[in-house]
Amino acid sequence: MTESNTSRRRGDQLQNDIYAATYRLLETEGYSAINFARIAREANTSRSVVYRYWDTPFDLVFAAVQQRMQQSEGVFKSLDFDRGSLRDNLVYVGQHFILESNNGPFRLFKMLFSEMINQQERERTGQMLAEATGSNIKIMDYVLQRAVQRGEITKFPPKATKLILFEQIRYTFMLENGLVSHQKLEEIVDHVVLPAILYFSKQ
Q1: To bridge 116 with a disulfide, which of 11, 77, 87, 121 should be the other Cys (CB 3.0-4.6 Å)?
Q2: Contact status, residue 21 vs residue 39, Cβ threshold 8 Å
Q3: What is the pTM assigned to this prediction?
Q4: What torsion do the CA atoms of 183, 198, 161, 139 make, to the nearest 10 degrees?
């Protein structure tokens, strides 16, 4: 690709093309395939352009995964989580969270943890996890607000209880090698999440 062609892709479009190439390599070949020369070739640009935006391959991978997580969060928020009852809403949220964990950028998130080599990278990855947690809480607040309006609960539970559904799915996801069955999801909702929410509603 000539420099003149490269220059026509500026700003967000150029970065998005580089992110797409990075994410594609992560999915097909893993973190070890990521280097600036390979990314530049896959994105049809020059290494100097890649170096202009990111200092290290980890920086690029971090930004690419974060971008996909933000896109997935936008899709997640656009869903209608009101399925008629608190229990059905929790199952519905869990189903979509499992889908994102299996197919979305969340399954690549663990790559970042395995590649962290210094405190700064740990802090940045922890920040990304905090952002994901904030998104989980917003979704749960929406579900809980509907439950309050229907008279199923009287008040919101604490933060730790709001996150139980997502944390239990993540734990099962790791324990079962990425497999969380619908039966297991219903067990999590019926025997852990819903009782905890109802308990705090009665306090």
Answers
A1: 121
A2: yes
A3: 0.68
A4: 70
Interacting residues of 163 by C-beta distance below 8 A, sequence separation 6+? 133, 136, 137, 140
**What's 72-92 look like in SS3?**
HHHHHHHCCCCCCCHHHHHHH
4 pLDDT more than 50: no
- Residue 44: left (phi > 0), alpha (psi -120 to 50), or beta? left
Q: CA-CA distance, 77 to 125, in Å (whole number)?
A: 22
Tokens linked to 14 = 């150029």
- Assess contact for 165 and 90: CB atoms under 8 A: yes
Q: What string of H, E and C letters represents the secondary structure of 149-170? A: HCCCCCCCCCHHHHCHHHHHHH
In whole angstroms, how far apart are CA 111 and each of 13, 58, 65, 126, 182?
25, 10, 10, 13, 26
**What is the residue whose two structure tokens read 């969340």?**
106
Q: Which amino acid is at 186?
A: E
Query: Tens digit of pLDDT for each residue in 171-193?
Result: 887 777 667 899 999 999 999 99
Burial of 103 (0-12, 13-18, 19+ CB in 10 A): exposed
Place of tokens 């973190």: 31
- Single-letter code of the amino acid located at 64: A
